[in-house]
Design brief:
It is a multi-pass membrane protein. It is built from ten helices and no strands. The chain is mainly alpha-helical and 253 residues long.
Length: 253
């Protein structure tokens, strides 16, 4: 990256951290989608940096919320996302070597769907979902998270439907993000995806992530949640459609 590109990347890190702290997910989606659409970095590099950033963001946010974690839900979700993260990362390696256009197209579809989920206010169920629903949600999140470091939408949609307090839902989601990030980082290290450039970019991003997350968490009650969701929705839809069109164009050549 040039100095200008790095500056743009750090601004996107700040915005994505803000969105994540307000909505409970979307850090990886915003960062991956916009960075890829602007051509600031390739998907493998961006996903590696996102994994480190997501870990710091989630760990910073959960430090005062960990007592509210729904351990039963976390356990079933983890049974899905931990093993399927391996599959997702394997798909990333395969597609990055064989069809970058298809990799970009899939990312675009994921970003568009997640953008739609941001505006959906899922009605709470009268009864808790069964283990299979958590396992399925975790599995989808594992594949997407393994590929792009951005599987939070599948987890968030299911969790926000549960008849639980919002504080419990957010604490559980943050725990999921910590675990998925750690899992992906371990796999990336084993696969050789983490080089000096990834580490250097991550180190520059950490103060931004921690600062934005701490400030946003502290003043969360004063931030208009719906307005933030609408802004993120517009950004994700525009970005996702751009990636889909670009991917289809490349596949058609």
């Amino acid at each position: 990256m040039t100095g200008f590109e790095l500056g743009v990347f750090l601004l996107l890190v700040a915005f994505a951290s803000f969105i994540q702290s307000v909505t409970g997910f979307a850090l990886g989606l915003v960062l991956m989608g916009v960075v890829t659409a602007l051509g600031l970095a390739d998907i493998v590099f961006s996903a590696a940096v996102v994994s480190f950033i997501a870990l710091v963001n989630s760990a910073t946010a959960i430090r005062t919320q960990w007592r509210g974690v729904d351990r039963r839900a976390l356990g079933w979700l983890a049974c899905g996302f931990l093993p399927l993260t391996v599959v997702g990362l394997a798909l990333l390696d395969y597609l990055s070597a064989s069809s970058v256009a298809l990799l970009r197209l899939i990312l675009g579809v994921v970003v568009v769907v997640a953008g739609g989920l941001l505006l959906i206010q899922p009605g709470q169920l009268s009864q808790r979902s069964g283990p299979f629903a958590f396992l399925l949600s975790g599995s989808v999140a594992g594949v997407i998270g393994g590929m792009y470091g951005a599987g939070g939408a599948a987890l968030a949609y299911l969790m926000y439907r549960q008849p639980d307090p919002v504080a419990v839902i957010r604490a559980t989601l943050l725990s999921c993000f910590v675990l998925t990030s750690v899992m992906r980082i371990v796999l990336m290290l084993a696969a050789g995806h983490v080089d000096e450039t990834v580490l250097w970019t991550t180190l520059l991003s950490l103060p931004v992530v921690i600062g934005v997350t701490m400030v946003t968490t502290r003043y969360a009650g004063a931030i208009p949640d719906l307005l933030v969701r609408r802004a993120a929705f517009l950004l994700l839809i525009a970005t996702g459609l751009g990636l889909v069109i670009h991917g289809l164009w490349e596949l058609g050549d």
